[in-house]
What we know:
321 residues, alpha/beta, D-Maltodextrin-Binding Protein, domain 2, 3 domains, seven-stranded mixed β-sheet, 43% helix, 20% strand, globular
Amino acid sequence: MIRKTPPLEAIEIFVAAARGDSLRSVARDMALSPSAISRRISGLETFLGVILFDRVRQTLVLNAAGRRYLALIEPAISTIQRATTMLVDINPRRLSVATSHSFASGWLLPRLPELLHHHDIDIELVPCRDFNVLRSGEAKIGIWGGLAVPDDMIAERMFDVRAFPVCAPRLADGRLPPVSDAMLTDYPLLAVRSPGQLWQRWFTSAGLSRSPPQMREYDTLHMMYEAASAGLGIALAMPLIAESLLLSGKLMRCAEGCRSLGETYQLYRADSRIARSAIEQRFASWLQKAIADSLEAFGNFADHHKALSAPRGNALAQSRC
């Protein structure tokens, strides 16, 4: 049977790109790379036989055909979203949660079986960093870090982000890891494009006025940590997201400082839904305890490094991250 309609994912990406500020911001919100967004839009244009965007200096600008197509399909997209929300709401065990790809794959996904079998909560993940999924009802709860709180959202603080440098046990160029903060700028430093300036904030928090000379940027924290575990440089380990790689030994702490990055992870929901449902309350209670356990484990990694590097009897070896 010849397909007569394009894939829904391609339509969703087209709508997001038509409404978005830039290809990179759309990619971040959709938890995809910019090249993946571009490929899906090109695939949609090939399917339709119509160019929807003008390519201007590596940016996408909606043209007349694109504006007409957007106006025609927006009502259908809204209908699909409402129908999905109504159907999901029928299942009292299911809860749709929006979060970043890195938070989902690095921390939340491995815990979904526990939530289902021990807490009777069936999580449907919506991988994005876009408040519109809460406004539309596609997701009931959002878990994000580094975002301001819009006027139409209610936010509950989960944890403030502190970070310490990590790398593979041996770097790809054969070098052993650095052992002090002062040595860090002799190595390639790995970062994410958004939120930006994390290393600069970390150095400022350490009281060090220096600009990292070698910086490699990635689209997501997950990609950055995979690059670090492959020996490509030094990354900043953040609570929860880096936990699995630290536990596996693929990443190890290097240098001394565990410092604030000025970021906060929060639990968001639309203020149009003032009262939490029973399943939301159960999930929030579970989340609070699970995060507390992971923060304690994160602090233990800091303590272990200090105990190994500090002279015997040094009180710093007992301090927490």
